[in-house]
Write a structure and sequence with these properties.
19 strands; alpha+beta; 15 helices; 455 residues
């Protein structure tokens, strides 16, 4: 960004974020939910140009804008956000789809996952689209996609598999953006470089129907599945301490014994228990980044109270670390289910390995430079996210992918984590401005670095 360029006002990002929240593009996992076309229309109005719209299914729209660079051989940078959000549950302090501003926060579903980044990236891209920022050597692309919250079938996956020529790039900025983490040496800024792999499973059991008033000797499909789910929820899961996790711990500047416990497969479980006494949110994150995780989430059986179910099924969210695959996941599930394992059919719902991107690239260095400009510090934490993002489809094509943002100190790292898919999701207006400024600097710095490397 040139020294004379005006910074992006936080209010501009706030207004766009509130509009996206009000669009209520709720993705409940069914093919016809989402209605991302509403937010596509909002972005078209924001940019003042129609862009290129992709509609993989009626209403499931994604929108793309591509600005050519000055050097056809220079790498392209893609800024990608998603438009859909997960459903809400009871317990909110505000209307989750009003997008209201209160106490300096924008409240609503999607405020941090990830409509805040979608809006901040749009504000940055608009400066380039309207000629307020100089062109990059390579193409600069803005993409807002449908269906991230249900696996990307109608969004990023569809585009990568069916329209790669439209979204082709060498570098990608997307989620997840985390707040800084306090360390003995001052704040350290996470940059997401890796993510766990989703291995969701559907579990099915068949039994024999009958009258519920006569249960003796019956074959109730619900019962073995319920036992198996209980066993899965209680069973310890395998530990994997990835290179990304080791690099993350090294940058935390912990006391030697605490760091050693977080890097020892024999000690990590006790370390998680110790952390939970101070912060359950932080302990939950550490556990997820070092273990295969298994979470039963949906259970369906029966038709009415007086009929013994003939069929029962459940959905289980499984997230794997590097080195774990579908075979090792299924092996763990069968062992953990115990005596009922032989009766239960395991069906893959989503299979994708964990993925990561290296540091030391032009985009990585541009991020570090931008953080120094914005905060005065070059302390960066290469971070693994236990969630799954659309970056995985691009990593499969060799694209380098990171997630980064910048936040004020009104919400801690642990509190921030608790809001993902939770209640009272919110982000400060100041953080929106900080993130937009950071991303503006990242894009400018990437341009400078790729300009010098491609001449």
């Amino acid at each position: 960004m040139s020294g004379s360029a005006r910074p992006i006002p936080a209010g501009e990002v706030k207004e766009l974020l509130s509009a996206l929240i009000r669009n209520a593009c709720v993705n409940d996992g069914t093919a016809d939910s989402g209605d991302e076309h509403r937010s596509v229309a909002t972005l078209q109005s924001f940019f003042g140009e129609p862009g290129r719209v992709f509609e993989a299914r009626p209403g499931r729209q994604s929108i793309l804008y591509r600005l050519p660079g000055t050097n056809p051989s220079a790498p392209a940078l893609l800024l990608m956000g998603h438009l859909d959000v997960v459903p809400v549950t009871d317990g909110w302090s505000v209307d989750p789809f009003e997008g209201q501003v209160r106490d300096g926060f924008v409240w609503g579903r999607g405020a941090i996952d990830m409509l805040n980044l979608t809006a901040a990236m749009a504000a940055v891209f608009r400066r380039h689209l309207h000629g307020e920022r100089p062109p990059l050597p390579g193409d600069l692309v803005y993409l807002a996609v449908a269906d991230e919250e249900a696996g990307g079938t109608w969004g990023a996956r569809y585009l990568v598999e069916s329209h790669w020529e439209a979204v082709v790039c060498e570098y990608l900025l997307t989620e997840i953006a985390y707040p800084a983490i306090a360390t003995a040496g001052g704040p350290a800024h996470p940059v997401t470089v890796a993510e766990k792999g989703p291995y969701w499973r559907r579990l099915r059991v068949s039994g024999t129907p009958g009258h519920a008033s006569q249960p003796y000797g019956s074959d109730n499909a619900l019962v073995p599945l319920a036992r198996a789910l209980s066993a899965l929820g209680a069973a310890p899961t395998p530990v994997v301490l990835s290179d990304e996790w080791r690099a993350f711990v090294a940058e935390l500047e912990l006391p030697e014994d605490e760091a050693a416990a977080l890097l020892d497969p024999e000690l990590i479980d006790q370390a998680v228990e110790d952390l939970a006494s101070d912060s359950v949110g932080w302990a939950r994150y550490v556990h997820a980044c070092t273990h295969l995780t298994v979470s039963p989430t949906v259970f369906e059986a029966g038709s009415k109270a007086n009929v013994i179910p003939a069929d029962a099924e459940a959905l289980v969210d499984v997230r794997a670390l590097p080195g774990q695959d579908g075979e090792s996941v299924d092996d763990h599930l069968r062992k953990a289910m115990g005596r009922d394992a032989d009766r239960i059919r395991l069906e893959p719902v989503m299979d994708h390995p964990a993925g990561s991107s290296p540091g030391g690239t032009p985009l990585w260095e541009a991020i570090v430079d931008a953080l120094e400009i914005s905060t005065g510090s070059r302390r960066v934490l290469p971070t693994i996210t236990p969630a799954t993002t659309d970056a995985r489809f691009f990593r499969d094509r060799g694209v380098v992918c990171y997630g980064v943002g910048l936040f004020d100190d009104r919400v801690s790292f642990a509190d921030f984590l608790s809001m993902f898919h939770g209640i009272d999701e919110r982000v400060t207006v100041e953080s929106l401005g900080l993130t937009a400024h950071l991303l503006d600097e990242v894009v400018a710095g990437f341009g400078r670095r790729t300009r010098s490397s491609s001449t």
